[in-house]
Design brief:
This protein is of the alpha+beta class and 178 residues long. The chain has a single domain (12-166), classed as Glutaredoxin (3-Layer(aba) Sandwich). It has helices at residues 43-60, 74-84, 97-102, 153-166; strands spanning 12-15, 20-22, 31-36, 64-69, 90-93, 107-109, 123-125, 128-133, 138-143. The chain has a seven-stranded mixed sheet, with helices on one face. The protein has a two-stranded antiparallel sheet with strand order 6-7. Helix 2 links the parallel strand 4 (64-69) and strand 5 (90-93).
Length: 178
């Protein structure tokens, strides 16, 4: 189980237009926002990533660099980027399922074509959203076993204003006996 205030697992993927992304060498002012998405086959992911694409400048103005990552290959990632009109949002691809598991993501098996007629990969990771501090420790995490009811990026922006202003610590770090 991943714990806030502890080091994030290794994460390195190729991106469509920004070269290789490696969390260990990332240097955001405050946080890296890592959004793991299911893939091209997921219509909810497209809607979710459009919201994030729209808010990338708002995150950037708060010292937060964003990346969206899936286990899709390069061609499917490029199709998703085109679908959502990605210009500011970095799109990473080729997430190894072993890496997805290290991040606590759930893995699903294909059920065939989705409601939009796109075949699911044989295996793929379910969604997760993380804020990783510039020192490489986990600040916030949300992992889902279903594609529904994800954290709102629009709500995260003003929450970050509070976090920054009040130096709010990561929560959920206690691992002792309850």
């Amino acid at each position: 189980m991943l714990i806030p205030r502890q080091p994030a697992p290794a994460l390195a993927v190729d991106t469509l237009a920004h070269g290789r992304f490696d969390l260990r060498t990332a240097s955001p002012e405050r946080f890296t926002l890592v959004c793991f998405y299911r893939g091209l086959h997921c219509p909810l992911c497209a809607t979710y990533l459009k919201e994030l694409e729209h808010l990338v400048p708002d995150f950037a103005s708060r010292g937060v660099e964003a990346i969206a990552i899936s286990s899709d290959g390069q061609s499917r990632a490029a199709e998703m980027a085109e679908k959502i009109g990605a210009e500011a949002l970095r799109i990473g691809y080729g997430l190894a399922l072993e890496t997805a598991r290290a991040w606590g993501l759930y893995i699903s098996a294909s059920r065939g074509k989705t409601s939009i007629g796109i075949e699911e990969p044989a295996l793929f990771s379910e969604p997760g959203v993380f804020l990783v501090r510039s020192d490489g420790t986990i600040y916030y995490l949300s992992v889902q076993s279903m594609p529904f009811v994800r954290p709102s990026f629009a709500e995260m922006v003003p929450a970050l204003d509070f976090v920054i202003k009040s130096h709010y610590p990561a929560r959920g770090e206690f691992t002792g006996a309850a």
